[in-house]
């Protein structure tokens, strides 16, 4: 196939041609990196002429890979393009590191560093097989990563609450000896603290539920056949990326000594974000009649938990 062909098929972008050519280009980089590494794995050094050939070949393979990446137009979806770009950059950085290691190590035998760098290029190239093939799949990758982080934050708080009144007990094991508890109240939750944590956990769980439900909705209704629907999927990916940092901020300020104004501020931020996410879901093509029910339910749950947290904070 001549380069330039993958871009055009009756004037439209041909995505299956793109993937075929990209995968060929990645395979070529992996092979050239292996050749280069082998040539410099034991004495004698390649002749200057052979060295130049090897350098030209790997440079050509890297430029080809970069060129093929640039064929992927933004009209195929920004989330997809971003993930292909990140994978491409990882390969390029891997090759650069390998070349650096070869240049800086004396040639007696194959160094551990060179082996590791060669393996790094291989694993960066292998990642291409796992890349999402369209924007819908790319958005599902983003949502899956968010779900993981939010789930961890929820579990950490639940574990700390279950471990007794002192969430730092595993970090600050009693060195004093004896059974005397530590006198520092700053490491304990008061009854009021614990009551405030309840609705904050409610907001965190609403975040997780929103991401899970959105994942199912994208799987069922996500469409990449029109530019409007592609853009809506990208908007959903962009706004949901803000959820896990917001959940983390709220979780962090729940640990003692609890600063109520910080808790209120972070709970309000998360609630505002979730309502914005739900409103974007509601107006997107992934929201059918069956999705509307949970969108409305979660919207109410967010309001309820935020109000409850504020009431408990201001109730002396």
From TrEMBL:
**Domain of life according to the entry:** Eukaryota
Q: Basic and acidic residues bias: where?
A: 179-190
Task: Give the Cyclin-D1-binding protein 1-like C-terminal domain ranges.
Answer: 173-278
Q: Which residue intervals are annotated with compositional bias (Acidic residues) in the record?
A: 165-178
Concerning its family, UniProt says: Belongs to the CCNDBP1 family.
Q: Where is this region: Disordered?
A: 165-190
The protein's name is Cyclin D-type binding-protein 1
Give an example GO cellular component term for this record: cytoplasm
Task: Read off the Pfam families from this record.
Answer: GCIP_C, GCIP_N
Q: Which residues form the Cyclin-D1-binding protein 1-like N-terminal domain?
A: 22-162
Alphabetical UniProt keywords:
Cell cycle, Cytoplasm, Nucleus
From the Swiss-Prot or TrEMBL record, state where the protein is found: Cytoplasm; Nucleus
Main localization, broad class: cytoplasm
Q: Which InterPro entries match?
A: GCIP-like, GCIP-like_N, GCIP_C
């Amino acid at each position: 196939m001549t380069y330039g062909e993958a871009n055009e098929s009756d004037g439209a972008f041909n995505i299956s041609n793109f993937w075929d050519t990209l995968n060929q280009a990645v395979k070529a980089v992996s092979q050239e990196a292996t050749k280069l590494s082998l040539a410099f794995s034991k004495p004698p050094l390649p002749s200057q002429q052979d060295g130049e050939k090897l350098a030209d070949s790997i440079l050509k393979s890297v430029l080809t890979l970069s060129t093929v990446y640039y064929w992927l137009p933004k009209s195929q979806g920004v989330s997809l393009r971003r993930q292909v770009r990140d994978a491409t950059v990882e390969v390029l950085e891997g090759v650069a590191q390998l070349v650096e290691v070869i240049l800086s190590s004396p040639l007696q035998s194959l160094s551990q560093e060179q082996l590791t760098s060669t393996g790094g290029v291989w694993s960066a190239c292998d990642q291409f097989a796992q890349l999402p093939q369209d924007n819908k799949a790319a958005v599902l990758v983003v949502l899956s990563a968010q779900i993981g982080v939010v789930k961890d934050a929820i579990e950490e708080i639940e574990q700390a609450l279950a471990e007794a009144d002192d969430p730092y007990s595993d970090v600050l094991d009693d060195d004093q000896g004896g059974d005397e508890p530590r006198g520092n109240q700053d490491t304990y939750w008061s009854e009021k603290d614990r009551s405030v944590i309840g609705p904050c956990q409610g907001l965190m769980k609403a975040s997780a539920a929103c991401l899970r439900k959105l994942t199912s909705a994208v799987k069922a209704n996500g469409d990449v056949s029109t530019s409007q629907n592609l853009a809506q999927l990208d908007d959903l990916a962009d706004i949901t990326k803000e959820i896990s940092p917001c959940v983390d901020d709220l979780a962090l300020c729940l640990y003692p000594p609890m600063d109520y104004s910080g808790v209120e501020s972070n709970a309000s931020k998360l609630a505002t974000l979730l309502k914005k996410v739900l409103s974007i879901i509601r107006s997107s093509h992934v929201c059918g009649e069956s999705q509307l029910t949970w969108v409305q339910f979660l919207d109410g749950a967010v309001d309820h938990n935020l109000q409850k947290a504020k009431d408990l904070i201001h109730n002396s």
